[in-house]
Specification:
This protein folds into two domains: 61 residues, Orthogonal Bundle (GTP Cyclohydrolase I, Chain A, domain 1); 137 residues, GTP cyclohydrolase I, C-terminal domain/NADPH-dependent 7-cyano-7-deazaguanine reductase, N-terminal domain (GTP Cyclohydrolase I, domain 2, 2-Layer Sandwich). The chain is built from seven helices and ten strands. The strands form three sheets. Strands 8-5-6-9-10 form a five-stranded mixed beta sheet, sandwiched between helices. Strand 5 and strand 6 form a beta hairpin. Helix 1 packs across helix 2 and helix 3 packs across helix 4. The chain is elongated. About 4% of the residues have low confidence.
Amino acid sequence: MNSSINASKIIIDNEDNKIISKAEAEEAVKTLIRYIGEDPEREGLIETPKRVIKSFNEFYAGYSQDPEIFLSKTFEDIEGYNDIVLLKNINFESHCEHHMVPIIGRASIGYYPDKRVVGISKLARVLDLYAKRLQTQETMTAQILNCIDKTLLPKGTAVFIDAEHHCMSTRGVLKNDVTMTTNLFSGCFLEDTNLQDRFLKMAT
């Protein structure tokens, strides 16, 4: 199932090609407010459904764009540079697809260029677009790596993510200050453990 978000409607591509209007989405929020025992018509909550849907447009903006677009403009004049390119400690916020609560962390993204490099901020934009979706950390790690591999065609790609999951810290087992780490390698990083070690030392 694919979806896209804009200010007025959320479009879900399924068998019925159903279009969910902003008004319907706001009504769904009102239903949830009633479910927890509150009155959505009281003064403090009357504008809450609109605010929630506006927030959703920010939280899930990653469905509205293709991350590969950010890697389409590349540069070949790199004067013989032949080593790791790394963007380190990129802050991100995402939402867990199981409970729709925040995942907050940092990522380090590296690649070993073949003939082309990309503007370094574009790696952060790729991360942000995948983060602005309902996610698991494992899936997001793989999506970022696969996007870079497919678009830049580097000799190898490496992704490291460390994040706190609020589904664990604010509910359930209630364990604070616990982070989850994922890393994934392709190409020369996958084949060369020394290169993996170099990346991880640089990234952490």
